[in-house]
Amino acid sequence: MSTFAFLLVTFLAAVNPPAIALAAAGFDGETRRGRALAAGGGVAVALALYLAAALGAETWLEALDVAPETFRLAAGLVMVVAGGYAVWRGRVAAGAGEGGWLAGISPLGVPLLASPAGLVAAISHGADDGEGKTLAAALVVIALAGVLAFLAPRRGGAALDAAARLLGALLIVLAAGLAVDGVRAV
Amino acid sequence: MIWAAGAVLLRAWLLSPEVCPQVSAGEAVADARAAAAWMARVQEPDGSYLYEFDLDKNEQVPGYNAVRHAGVTMALYQLAAAGEASSLPAADRGLAWMRARLYEHDGWAAIRDDAGGVETGGSALLLAGLAQRRLATGDTAYDDFMRQVGRFLVVMQQDDGSFLLNYDIHAGAPDPSERSKYATGEAFWSLTLMHRAFPGEGWDVAARRTADYLSLRRDTVEGQNFPPWADQWAAYGLAEMADWPLDDANVAYARALAERFGFLVRVESQRTDGVLSKLFHGRRSRGAGMGTWSEALDSLWRLSGADPRLADLRDEIGERAACAAGMLHERQLSAEDAADTKNPPVAEGAWFTEGLTRMDDQQHSLSGLLRSAAILDERKRPR
After folding, report:
1. Contacts with B320 from chain A: Cβ below 8 Å
2. What is the pLDDT of residues B289-330, one digit of tens each?
3. What burial letters (b/e) apply to B176-196, b meaning 16+ CB within 10 Å?
4. ipTM of this complex
5. Of the candidates B65, B157, B52, B162, which has an alpha carbon nearest to the alpha carbon of residue B111?
6. B14 — contact with chain A (CB < 8 Å)?
7. Chain A interface includes B266 (CB < 8 A)
8. What is the dihedral of CA A79, A81, A82, A88, to 10 degrees?
9. B34-77 tens-digit pLDDT
10. Total structural domains in chain A?
11. Where are the domains of chain B?
12. A94 touches chain B (CB under 8 A)
């Protein structure tokens, strides 16, 4: 698997678009315009945060005074927690919002699209695998999640729930690999 | 709120700042000299050294260990081999202490400990020290003695390449009941040094057998729960074998060792003397521990420069080695620090943990700092 494909899979699991779609479907009083505002706002907020995380990966690590290898271990732990929650609940850790642009900022922007797991993955992989590739992979997944949040399907919840849990399990596997890599790196 | 609490916890635990104090090559060598001066200062007329000291109580801790004695003497010879001839007199006194305790049998020689036993590790480090002495002085007076000690090591080697811990004098044979995770690496390095000193005499055959045991079987046979066992002696030996050359299994083992020692240095660099740090990271490691990591990384750095299969690790290994040297530099008691203690002559140039120092704290730290000078020198050059 190429680095970019691996990063795509990682962000797919870390952002978990099906879980975001389930959360967006729970927003109250949604109109098509309101959903568009929320999805657009969420993607914009997440885009800014992933830009800062991936392009500033080395700056973040320098500010924290930790080596990329050490950060992998911490990132793995955060991703394990997020993956475990997704497996357990079938969605990401955020409550229902009111809809509209405010919901775009939170919870859709933060912490759904720009999730702790996604952001630590962006920093860790930005430092290890290149900022450009990492950002590109994150953006593809955010766009996909934004579209799903906009569509917020009222039907097919069971399939989304299953997909969200599977991605949660995948995230745990990827996180374990990242953490082990952090321990085993020089 | 939960995420914020998690972030704070993560910062206190896994993401604590990694602090690697700066140290120059010159400072590292000066620190090594100060450690050697400590060894000479605390040496008794019979060649033994102060074993362990409690600075808070200002008293010696009873006990002695022939293996550690041999290790300290070997470190002094390492310093001499690096061009510091001033360490030779103390090292030679330490050698005399060991030669006064020899057990000779069937053409081989080994050190006896205070209880009269014959243990592999002490003799292995005696041999390593003699090899360093030969490099330092060019003196061949001990060549036959080196061969005698080398033959003892071969007697103690098992078919699988491992080494038994004790020789049973009464039975007239190695005691098959106990292997030693330390002695195997120590003997391995000594045998590689024997091959360097006496190529063509076949010492490399025994060394290769042990290299394969360490690389392929040791962690399983000896039940290491978290392999690989952090064995700096093995790293010394592998570095010595760089141009033999190593086989792929040896290279994979060297890589695993680099990963282990690199991780240990990263964790240590997050430790401070604060209460919170002790709670999240445990107490700081003693000089002996950090010194062994430094020795290992120094050896693996040399190996990564000689073997292209490890070249990709060279910068990272160098970075961790420099970090370990920086921590050792910062934690050694200077003359000024020592002046404020109850016993300045024993404190100066030593590494204390919770008020205690043992002679191997100085041994491993000396060796690590001395050998890190080349890394520090290279890293300061513009690339």
Report:
1. 186
2. 999 999 999 999 999 999 999 999 999 999 999 999 999 999
3. eeebbbbbbbbbbbbbbbbbe
4. 0.82
5. B65
6. yes
7. yes
8. 140
9. 999 999 999 999 999 999 999 999 999 999 999 999 999 999 99
10. 1
11. 14-380
12. no
What's the token pair of residue B217? 């079987």
pLDDT digits (tens, 9 = 90+) for B116-132: 899 999 999 999 999 99
Domain of residue A116 covers 3-184
Q: Evaluate whether A35 touches A103 at the Cβ level (below 8 Å).
A: no
Name the residue with tokens 């700042």: B17
* Residues of chain B neighbouring A74 (CB-CB closer than 8 A): 10, 14-15
Chosen for mutation from A69, A72, A186 (greatest number of chain B CBs closer than 10 Å) is A186
Residue type at A138? A
Cβ pairs bridging A and B (under 8 Å)? 49
- Right CATH for B14-380 from 3.30.1050.10, 1.10.645.10, 1.50.10.10, 3.30.70.580: 1.50.10.10
A115 chain-B contacts, CB cut-off 8 A: none
Which of chain A's residues have a Cβ under 8 Å away from the Cβ of B258? 186
Q: Nearest residue of A to residue B323 by CA position?
A: A67
